[in-house]
Design a protein that fits this description.
The protein has a 6-stranded parallel β-sheet, sandwiched between helices. It has a 5-stranded mixed β-sheet with strand order 7-8-6-9-10, with helices on one face. The protein has 240 residues and is of the alpha/beta class. The longest helix has 17 residues. Helix 4 packs parallel to helix 5. The two termini are 19 Å apart. The protein is 35% helix and 25% strand.
């Protein structure tokens, strides 16, 4: 049983709460903007782990505070990965622990593995041109999603003919070595991620479609269980 703190108590925080309670854990604090000061009252005696789903602009301040309290943290916040090296150094210097992922869904992490394998196969088939599309609810703060960027980076690592990501093509066509990512923000879409490979004669697509937030929430709780007792900065898929 873990004593968990929910840092960010919106829709995802509430979903994490349900999954954590179902797995026998205890929620000792639920923190949002209205009671943010309560975070500073936590200690390793009163809490075991912080699970954070907030905003990219808040992540680094939240991490600094949590590390200063001597607590490990699981984060589902994305939009900060361009500063990953600095974050890893900060966690290591503090002797702390951080688990991060662009997506905690077990299904998405299986998609990651399939995506890596298919991209490696496609290196031998230059007639196929890949693209990535993601869809989310209209309130999502970052675009493209962290999951889409992870998928794109996996393709780039395996595919010699693509070397960079094109995120905004509203005024130009992509260069031959660019991998295009398209984003849709509408309504209450929970999350759709699609990697497609198009040739002159056919198309192959890998797709993950989330029906609810439950998969993400359950994965975040599993991440907390796996992070407990560890130090350092860890990617969820590496421990899954």
């Amino acid at each position: 049983m873990l004593k968990l703190v929910l840092l960010g108590y919106g829709k995802m925080g509430r979903a994490v709460e349900q999954e954590a309670l179902a797995r026998g854990h205890v929620i000792v604090s639920k923190i949002n903007r209205s009671n943010a000061h309560e975070l500073l009252t936590l200690t390793p005696e009163t809490a075991d782990m912080v699970i954070e789903f907030t905003h990219p602009d808040q992540f680094e301040a939240n991490l600094s505070t949590v590390l200063g309290l001597g607590l490990p943290m699981v984060t589902g916040t994305t939009g900060w990965y361009d500063r990953l090296a600095a974050v890893q150094a900060q966690v290591n210097a503090a002797g702390g622990a951080l688990m991060y992922s662009s997506n905690f869904s077990v299904g998405v992490n299986l998609l990651f593995k399939l995506n890596q394998q298919l991209a490696a196969y496609m290196n031998q088939h230059p007639g196929y041109d890949p693209y990535i599309e993601e869809q989310h609810h209209r309130y999502k703060a970052d675009a493209p999603s962290g999951t889409a960027v992870s998928l794109a980076q996996q393709v780039l690592a395996a595919l010699e003919r693509k070397t960079r990501i094109a995120k905004n093509l509203s005024h130009r066509a992509p260069e031959p070595d660019e991998l295009s990512i398209g984003s849709v923000r509408a309504g209450g879409i929970t999350g759709v991620h699609r990697v497609s490979w198009v040739s002159d004669i056919d198309e192959i697509t890998l797709e993950h479609r989330a029906f609810s937030r439950r998969g993400f929430a359950l994965g975040a709780v599993i991440a907390a269980e796996k992070l407990w007792g560890r130090k350092g900065c860890h990617l969820f898929s590496d421990l899954l």
